[in-house]
Write a structure and sequence with these properties.
alpha/beta; binds adenosine-5'-triphosphate; 15% strand; Rossmann fold; 6-stranded parallel beta sheet; binds magnesium ion
Length: 208
Amino acid sequence: MPEAFAGRIGIMGGTFDPIHYGHLFAAAEAASGLGLDRVIFVPTGAPPHKKYGGMAGASERYEMTLLAISENARFEISRTETDRAGMSYTLDTLVSMRDLYPRSEFFFITGVDAILDICNWKEPFEITLLCTIAVVKRPGYDNEGLESLPEAIRRSVRVIETPMLDISATDIRRRVREGLGVRYLLPEAVRAYIEKNGLYSKMDGEPS
Ligand code: ATP
Ligand code: MG
């Protein structure tokens, strides 16, 4: 059912395997920089083949994301991608958000690493018609790469100036696997969930 809410909505997509402070900080900075009323986190569905060994399931990534956003009243979560079988396209997610909130304005929040890949996404130009792309800087990725995007896409990009956090989920998974600490890289409730459920502690196929 469409909702009457007519505000500015940020959409933060990701694998969130696991969600960490880099994601939460990017969402919060985009929200304050762009005056967003809400940010909806959209964890991706399960890819048909795991992208790497030890990837957490869609429901685990959804639950970690839910735990992580609980302290911020503006942050919400959507099942739109985790409920669909297989991977979803950003375009399809934006279309379903627009159908749900036909009176709202959308901002797709993404790190610069992800947006530089946009030309490989399904119908990138259609995406820019549905939302403004809010780009957050990320260590190791040059913002100058944005200039190589096609003009039609660049027009819809807004760069959010924020301090950069050198945190990645890949590095957190590695640290867990190697028995190194991850406290202070992600919310404590997420760290405890990882520990309790034994996530990332070994690669798939390794003997337990
Ligand atoms: P992985 O290492 O598994 O790719 P990740 O840390 O990159 O994980 P994703 O779930 O792939 O996290 O990223 C979701 C979105 O959040 C992407 O748009 C990505 O660019 C952005 N993002 C992730 N980490 C940061 C960070 N530290 N600073 C800014 N943006 C980030
Ligand atoms: Mg990533």
